[in-house]
Amino acid sequence: MLIHSRIPLRYVFKKLKEDALVIILIGLAVHYISAYYINRIPQMPSNIPAFLGTAISVLLSFKMSQSYDRWWEARKVWGAIVNDSRSFVLQLQSFVKESTNPMVKTLAYRQMAWCYSLGQTLRGLDPLEGLEAFLPASELQHLATHKNKPLAIIQLNAQDIKNLIRREELDAYRHVQLDATLVRLVESMGKAERINGTVFPVTYRVFLHFAIYLFVITLSFSLSEIPLIFELPLLVVLSSVFFLLEKTAYHLQDPFRNRPSDTSVTAIARTIEINLRQLLNETDLPQPVQPNGFYIL
Amino acid sequence: MLIHSRIPLRYVFKKLKEDALVIILIGLAVHYISAYYINRIPQMPSNIPAFLGTAISVLLSFKMSQSYDRWWEARKVWGAIVNDSRSFVLQLQSFVKESTNPMVKTLAYRQMAWCYSLGQTLRGLDPLEGLEAFLPASELQHLATHKNKPLAIIQLNAQDIKNLIRREELDAYRHVQLDATLVRLVESMGKAERINGTVFPVTYRVFLHFAIYLFVITLSFSLSEIPLIFELPLLVVLSSVFFLLEKTAYHLQDPFRNRPSDTSVTAIARTIEINLRQLLNETDLPQPVQPNGFYIL
Amino acid sequence: MLIHSRIPLRYVFKKLKEDALVIILIGLAVHYISAYYINRIPQMPSNIPAFLGTAISVLLSFKMSQSYDRWWEARKVWGAIVNDSRSFVLQLQSFVKESTNPMVKTLAYRQMAWCYSLGQTLRGLDPLEGLEAFLPASELQHLATHKNKPLAIIQLNAQDIKNLIRREELDAYRHVQLDATLVRLVESMGKAERINGTVFPVTYRVFLHFAIYLFVITLSFSLSEIPLIFELPLLVVLSSVFFLLEKTAYHLQDPFRNRPSDTSVTAIARTIEINLRQLLNETDLPQPVQPNGFYIL
Amino acid sequence: MLIHSRIPLRYVFKKLKEDALVIILIGLAVHYISAYYINRIPQMPSNIPAFLGTAISVLLSFKMSQSYDRWWEARKVWGAIVNDSRSFVLQLQSFVKESTNPMVKTLAYRQMAWCYSLGQTLRGLDPLEGLEAFLPASELQHLATHKNKPLAIIQLNAQDIKNLIRREELDAYRHVQLDATLVRLVESMGKAERINGTVFPVTYRVFLHFAIYLFVITLSFSLSEIPLIFELPLLVVLSSVFFLLEKTAYHLQDPFRNRPSDTSVTAIARTIEINLRQLLNETDLPQPVQPNGFYIL
Amino acid sequence: MLIHSRIPLRYVFKKLKEDALVIILIGLAVHYISAYYINRIPQMPSNIPAFLGTAISVLLSFKMSQSYDRWWEARKVWGAIVNDSRSFVLQLQSFVKESTNPMVKTLAYRQMAWCYSLGQTLRGLDPLEGLEAFLPASELQHLATHKNKPLAIIQLNAQDIKNLIRREELDAYRHVQLDATLVRLVESMGKAERINGTVFPVTYRVFLHFAIYLFVITLSFSLSEIPLIFELPLLVVLSSVFFLLEKTAYHLQDPFRNRPSDTSVTAIARTIEINLRQLLNETDLPQPVQPNGFYIL
């Protein structure tokens, strides 16, 4: 997640480099073509690029909204994970006959492990990294054989909740209520996987870039009487507004890619860890994740 | 679902062929009409096509949003199917007295069959194809008499859950919780059928095409002083931005048509199969569905 | 619901007749006023109609979205009715001790009657027509005294479910789960009534027509130098884009009016009947409702 | 709620009076300033008011959408109240051991009183007016001491439901299901209060008016060569499109203000009363609320 | 929350000061550059700033919608807190065997404390300030050790509900229903924290400001023939429409910052306190929070 501190210009311009170069080449090409065939190429009416600018704005507006919605939904999903993780521990303490039952702590630790593991799975990192702080080695070995580690962690929790019932530490009625919390966690996991695995319709991006280049070409033809030294910066600056917005939308739409604009899943998992440890009355708490310059992951 | 790999130009242009031809014919017709009646046809004010361009952008923006919403809702529905399939098996293992009860596996296999069958039903393919891997021949025969196969599969599962109760393997309380999962699966099925069976208001598409052709005609009249060799490509390229966006929206709005832009229901059903088999501790897992060039189904 | 088959031009133009006539009259009036007072009326700047066109597009975009939402919500409500009707019968078969209990069939038939009756009530038709296939004469007489027939049908079902409990065919726990399904059906009924009974803010439509006529007047003044034979068709064609879109939105916003663009509630009720009869193992099934030319009701 | 019958012009123009006067004064002022300083004031480029018109359209579109959403949400809340009132009585009849228990009628009458009282509270009217038809004098006295009457009515119902349990007319399980209905009613009440009590960000309205006046000023400068007799009506008519839309949105956003555009809460409460009385088998039913000319409250 | 009373101009202009100064400097710079290099700088075509104006409007429209959604969601979350606080006390009175049980009052007071504490936590104020009116000193000491005070208050309530069960004042069935209310409160808390802690994508704001300045620069070049005394006010007034809208959106998107445009969490918490005290039959009620001039917090 980008934070409010000053964003380095380098971060912004890195996104723009290639496109700016193409724009300059287009501007130069159009200029020399116009100069060479000056009598044979008619004047481009200025309302052509203007109309294209409107069409591009509409397209961008559509894409910005949908990309933002994906990003915001991803954040909502992780907000729901925070809420359900807290509720899960509150429910365990409230539902299990003896609050001091060590199983409460075991289940809570597995929940912390689940949060970290889900975040790393989504980002394509090692889903078991760092889990040795929460899980015994035997469970880590068991998880290693599973393709979907977070799902396997939830299965372990479901099995241990069943064990609580066998030992009559939990009744059927509250079992079902705990199960409802697990169902919500499975849902959040699936929603995050859906956002991560569903490619935003790629043709929109292709047509958008096509339209922006068309805009640049028609604009440079219609500005062909203006000296190159004024025309080129104008072309680059005007088209860069479009390119920058498109890039921002493009990054928002996939919020689990290890990029500065990602949903800060590690920081959220850490917050959950701190909250759950305090609910368990632990006093040795980890530090919140600190921002990495202008962003936090 | 289109994936990030390079989309073949052929795929894009195939969509455009017919419309481009019509545009060229319109351009030629307008050109020769203008040339012939040159003194009798007044100059088309250039703000007429410009205003039409704006109106078309607004229409397109509306259609793109609603089509995207249908496509995204279809994906959400299948995401919910993933979640509820996983929860269903976790609940069975947790709720049935003996986890080793063979009925758990029977119910889980029927759930996998349901996912494949629903996907094929939505796409208009044979809804029973490949189900022999999950269901005994007798059940397949029973299903053959049903008009709505996925609904009949859920009914079989509901009956077997009732049998679990008769044998006192499940209590009333957990029965209701399992039933809530079945209700959600029936809902997801119905939602997918709704998206599949509801025709997007067709008049919008008709009026949109009408407006685009009107745009081309007025634009070609207003450009009639420009040589044909510049005018025709400009007409085609400008109108193709509109046509391509409309086609993309048109394909998105019906995501179960066996097209490259479909929701990838087979791949999702396979993911569910792999997940459920692992939850059942099976080790002989099928491979995930591989992309078919630039898309995955 | 309009279907994909070719929509007759007659259907489209019938919507347009009156407005086209008014447009032509305005065009003629403006033309002769301009011709008569030619020296006294200044030239209308062409950006006045252009700016009005933009404002109208924005208005239309707003109205199209909200009308579409009403139409889509109506379809979603009927989708929920499909889902809950199916779930209702699955639950009855699963919850009632003896699946062969004749009350299951009675309740399922009343549910089919409810679907037909609700559809006809919404469309302002006779809500009891055709219900003799599902309900005994005594119940039809009882319903005749009720103002809200579908609500009375649900009350009958609720009473019979209570009778099941008296005869200990159903326990309290599953009673509540069945009740939850009835609550959802009551909700769907109320939502459809809300869409049907809530008038879309009428002033928007008035102001929209006002703006379109203003657009035509200013446009015809600004085109007053163009010969009438070119100006009139242009005026009609341009304004008809707006009128057609407005009419489409206007029809979508009230989807229970016995119009071709209606939500196809009869066809949906028939689908429910077929599904429920098959769940009851009946083999004598009715045919699905067939399209009526270019639409299905 | 405005209904489909012809809206009196008086109702529309009353909204416009003041703004039209200001527009005329601005037009006159600009005209005489331009005439006096004719050589010193440069021509206003016509794209300045055009660009402002676009910006205003965008602003208006935003405001119309959000205002409509508030209005539609208010209607949805009252739709939910209809549904939950019906479900509440159906549940009471189904859950209470003896359907003839007089407490069912008492609770249903209190629910009717709650609907009327909530509607009047939202509109700032006397929340107890007319409740003597549903509640005994002693309860009305008790309510008089409460600041939030509808909340106090729900508390009375919750207490009487508890009394049903004490007399073993209701079991714990169904108690919880009835409580869920009360929770939903408390939610609907709170949602209506939220819409009623949350001021739409006022600065948007201020800036919108500011932009419309700026539009009028720049437009009248750019039209300064046109005779006053044509310019003034044009200014008034063009700006009135904006003002009328803004006023409509402004009225929609606060749907409980005793205005013709209000949500028709009295009519809805009457519908609920009729429905509930019929569910109680009463035959002496009140008449539905009749429209008051062009609207219904 | 800003209220309807007249907003001081000072509040509006304070937002504008810096940007207006920059605009004036840009205007002056462009003017003198144009005057100096008059023959070498070509005329800026007026459709460049016009096209930028459209692009900015689209951007603003996107940002205004998303910011409004955050603000409205924040208000909805606090509305849900109102509803669940009321339901919580109604449920306690209804579920606990003896309504006179002093634990009901203890739990209700902790709920009031939770509301105040959550509001203050969100605004970055002392989360324990004023809680001595609701909580004993020992609990305040316990809370002081917790990082997330509201979460710790809910844990205290969950523990006391468990104590009610130990003393058989509450049964398992109603326990679960009360737990569902706690789960919703945990959700509301998490949602408010999410809105508060998620930075709106900062790059949009940067690019928006970039585009507005670009608009001003190109506009001032295209107006360079107009005398400075007319050009500068026009530049400031036109760009201020954009800046004011952006500032309003910027403030709405973070509704817990102790600003006049904040969600009025203190006033809402007071309303809850008054409601809950009346439900407990207390007569010594606090006053509602009064507006602070043109806003209420």
From TrEMBL, chains A, B, C, D, E:
UniProt entry tagged with the keyword rRNA processing: no
Superkingdom in the source lineage: Bacteria
Principal location class: membrane
Coiled coil residues, start to end: none
Protein's cellular compartments: Cell membrane
TM region(s), chain numbering: 20-38, 44-62, 202-222, 228-245
InterPro entries tied to this protein: YneE/VCCN1/2-like
Family statement drawn from the similarity comment of this UniProt entry: Belongs to the anion channel-forming bestrophin (TC 1.A.46) family.
Protein's UniProt name: Bestrophin
Species for this entry: Rufibacter sediminis
Lineage per the UniProt record: Bacteria, Pseudomonadati, Bacteroidota, Cytophagia, Cytophagales
